[in-house]
Specification:
about 475 residues, 17 strands, 2 domains, alpha/beta, seven-stranded mixed beta sheet, single chain
């Protein structure tokens, strides 16, 4: 079979990030022009290619001739696979319908958060033929085997399809227990895999990598535990090191580990970091961590092994809000971890959310002050969005039926406007929208913050990255244009 794995173009011409298995997670000027390679989609393509099929990967967000390429190739394509999310679903369906106009026989298959958590709604759309719920690699391999062999789909867990006008949904796919059975993503499948820009990447070209799945945390706003499961599964140290050495041989300079829980597997990571140092694996890298998942010895070793930036979900400067969101961290833990990173020369990024459960102007002001106190190198402040598969979604959907009916508005309003978020707070939707802009201005337009970034400039690449990212972020802070 000939199968297209597609990152769809964005119809609103927004800067959108779609490197997450959930399908889409951020957009707009606040990202500083960042783009990211689609590791989950590329891994799916590699698995299907290794099963004997012809695959083509097109990232139409980054490829300037993406639409022309699709138009020239679609006649030869048997199926197209798209990762889609709640906020991007209807835009993606427009692209799929356009592909079907070019080739009515093409099968449209979608995976990601939308089909996983809203399978019936996903299958009802005319653009969609089949869906995959949960982790898609093994399901897709078996699905294409059956399509090629003209076998029935019944009994294939993780699949949804239409049969005689009825939607058949077999249930969410089981988590893949031994992740080492998966191949390494083949970046050569992606024509433009080395043209991605990210302002916090120190050395280009860079790729993204995912070494763990699952999350034990109980945060009420996050879909990761429901998507991947509450148990953390990880690739072995040998698997990760093999990937890193391959990247180095291929000329890759930096890795962005996209795991939610990368630092949680301490014994494994200790082997990885010490081996990177001993073998002199020359890769810079970035990861995310919970603030209470690393200590000073970890930070020192991570720095020595090439880590230069760690991203943390801080969410709020109010302990009351953190407790309401079941974040299971304390403000003192945040203070300590950010101070240790500064001490050992690792940059930090702090994610903050506005519109959390119980939010008020008082708690927003606490977040404003706290963001300046902990001195992150960079930060983002976005509106809380309520996603299916989360505790907050379950809490709201009973009282707000429009939650499921209005998902089509999500991409344009993502993280900048309230979509029933005000139901969780003491503030109106307009007040929350204004608050997002206010916290941006107060954080980014400080003279001391701007000077600190200028003082970090060490090369023309640093200057270029600062200018490219900074003008977008400042434009949003001043004008609110996202």
């Amino acid at each position: 079979m000939n199968i297209l794995f597609l990152v769809p173009p964005n119809l609103e011409n927004l800067n959108v990030l779609r490197d997450s298995v959930y399908g889409c997670w951020c957009k707009g000027n606040r990202m500083g022009g960042a783009t990211a390679p689609p590791h989950p989609l590329l891994l799916m393509a590699t698995c299907v290619r290794d099963a004997g099929h012809n695959v083509c990967v097109v990232d139409a967000l980054i490829d300037p001739v993406g639409k022309q390429k699709l138009q020239s190739q679609i006649a030869e394509i048997d199926a197209v696979v798209v990762q889609t999310s709640v906020m991007a679903f209807l835009d993606d369906c427009e692209v799929l319908l356009w592909l079907k106009e070019q080739n009515p026989d093409v099968k449209a298959i979608v995976c990601g958060s939308m089909p996983t958590f809203l399978p019936e709604k996903t299958l009802k759309h005319d653009a969609v033929d089949l869906i995959v719920q949960g982790e898609a690699e093994e399901v897709l391999v078996e699905l294409f085997r059956r399509i090629e062999g003209r076998e029935k789909f019944n009994g294939l867990i993780g699949l949804g399809y239409k049969d005689g006008g009825k939607s058949i949904i077999t249930g969410k796919a089981s988590p893949i227990e031994n992740l080492d059975l998966l191949p390494h993503a083949d970046w050569s499948l992606l024509d433009h895999g080395q043209t991605y820009f990210n302002p916090i990447i120190k050395r280009h070209p860079y790729v993204t990598e995912l070494t763990t799945r699952g999350c034990f945390a109980k945060c009420v706003f996050c879909m990761a535990p429901q998507f991947y499961g509450g148990k953390i599964r990880g690739h072995s140290a040998d698997y990760v090191l093999e990937a890193l050495e391959k990247y180095q041989q291929q000329g890759i300079k930096e890795i962005y580990f996209r795991d939610e829980m990368f630092t949680s597997l301490k014994k494994r990571n200790l082997i990885i970091w010490e081996t990177m140092i001993r073998r002199k694996i020359d890769l810079a890298w970035i990861c995310s961590s919970r603030v209470n998942a690393i200590d000073e010895s970890d930070i020192k070793l991570m720095k020595k092994a090439g880590c230069h930036w760690i991203k943390f979900g801080v969410e709020s400067g109010s302990q009351k809000i953190l407790d309401n969101m079941k974040k299971d961290i304390s403000l003192d833990e945040v203070r300590k971890t950010f101070a240790l990173c500064r001490k050992h020369g690792i940059h930090t990024h702090a994610h903050f959310m506005i519109g959390c459960v119980g939010e008020s102007w008082e708690t927003i002001n606490e977040t404003n002050k706290f963001a300046r106190e902990i001195k992150p190198t960079t930060a983002t402040f976005g509106m809380l969005n309520v996603y299916p598969g989360t505790t907050l979604w379950d809490r709201l959907k009973e009282d707000c039926p429009s939650l499921e009916d209005g998902f089509s508005l999500r991409l344009q309003n993502l993280h900048s406007q309230s979509f029933l978020t005000d139901k969780l707070t003491e503030l109106s939707a307009e007040e929350l929208k204004a608050a997002v802009k206010i916290v941006h201005r107060k954080f980014f337009l400080r003279p001391g913050y701007l000077v600190s970034h200028l003082q970090r400039m060490r090369s023309w690449q640093d200057i270029f990255a600062l200018f490219r990212a900074g003008r977008k972020i400042i434009d949003y802070a001043i004008k609110g244009n996202d």
